[in-house]
Predict the structure.
Amino acid sequence: MWRRGFASGGAGVKAALEGRKWDAVVIGAGHNGLTAAAYLARGGLSVAVVERRHVIGGAAVTEEIVPGFRFSRCSYLQSLLRPAIIRELELKRHGLKLLKPKAAGFTPCSDGRYLLLGFDEEENHREISKYSRRDADAYLRSV
């Protein structure tokens, strides 16, 4: 059973959790907690998942960390998600879409400039050169 009305916390959450017997309680609705809960539920157990934050998903969440900029906290770790989990929990059927990043890193500066590094060595050299030709040349020697 999936219930969303608990975000406000307090007595409503306590009553809902105390109102039934749970086979398992998962603390934390991050991607690992949700995966564990899904496997437990798939195995026939009644599972309660509790999360202290206002959003679920843990490292898979996209949030506005810096005003005006949305970041995916750790979705670059998607490569660590075992294909067996994607298959067994039918995550694609439930909306999972894995996107290949266009860049490996983006670093905004307070003066409006930025450093955008990707997967093309020459483009990375041009980007680094905006700040330091010496560092850009050293980068090329290191790759």
